[in-house]
Write a structure and sequence with these properties.
single chain; alpha/beta; 5-stranded mixed sheet; two-stranded antiparallel ribbon; about 30% strand
């Protein structure tokens, strides 16, 4: 399982992060849900670790859930949770401190920029208004004939 968070600014731009790995694509803040951890706890932990921010993300902030079929033999299917996070003020963004062993940059991106910079599977989860608590979307990504 993975969990990520949509963080916006008052202009409805989306906060995206860039991993330190060579040739990595931009991502949403988040990561793998650890053993004995809920997706909600994971997204809070990842925001704290990656950005140095304590986000007030709650159960009703669930934005989307996606089942992803394995793409290769020996791999497992995955579940990805996406939460709608807070709208950050300029003072909030001044407090961002990146976890340098995992991320080398962050930036604000318009919806169009984010869609072109994020992996297509991640960009596809971002449908509809970014701040609509209680209106989660469920998606499935199948890869017919790939196994």
């Amino acid at each position: 399982m993975t969990a990520a968070v949509l963080i916006t600014n008052p202009g409805d731009d989306l906060l995206i992060v860039h991993p330190t790995k060579t040739d990595a694509e931009w991502q949403l803040p988040g990561g793998i849900v650890e053993q004995h951890e809920s997706p909600l706890d994971a997204v809070r932990r990842e925001a704290r670790e990656e950005l140095g921010l304590d986000l007030d993300v709650r159960e009703y902030d669930l934005f989307a859930v996606e089942w992803l079929q394995a793409t290769r033999p020996g791999r497992r299917d995955r579940i990805a949770f996406l939460f709608a996070g807070p709208v950050l003020t300029e003072a909030d963004t001044d407090r961002i401190t990146l976890q340098r062993d995992e991320l080398d940059a962050w930036r604000w991106a318009t919806r169009a920029e984010a869609e072109s910079m994020l992996h297509p599977a991640i960009a596809a989860r971002i449908v509809g208004p970014l701040q609509t608590p209680g209106s989660a979307v469920y998606r499935e990504t199948r890869h017919e004939g790939t196994l």
